[in-house]
Amino acid sequence: MICCLDVDYRDGQGQCAAVLFQEWDAATAEKVYRSVTGDIQPYTPGTFYKRELPCMLDTLRLIEEPVGALLIDGYVWLGENRGGLGYHLFEALE
Asked: Which of 8, 16, 31, 71 could pair with 4 in a Cys bridge, judged by C-beta atoms 3.0 to 4.6 Å apart?
C-alpha cells in the first residue's frame, strides 16, 4: 500500500488523514484513516516536525494494512546534518 499523510490545524488540535492507495496511478483510495491530536506545538521555523510528527504517528498507529511507501509534504533534509519532517518520521518508524 501507498500511504499519503497530511495534517490540518484547528482550535489547538492537529487533524491528520492517511489515504491508502494500491498503486501510484489508482483513481480511488482503498481506505482513509483519521485522527485528532490535542495540545500540538506552535509552528516554529526549522522545527516543523515537532508540530506534525505526533499527529502523523497517531494516525499511522491506526493503519492495519502493510504500507510500502509513505508520501508526505515535508523536507527530509533542511541542510547539512539538519533533519526535517521526513527524516524525523523515518527515525520514529525505525
From this structure: 71
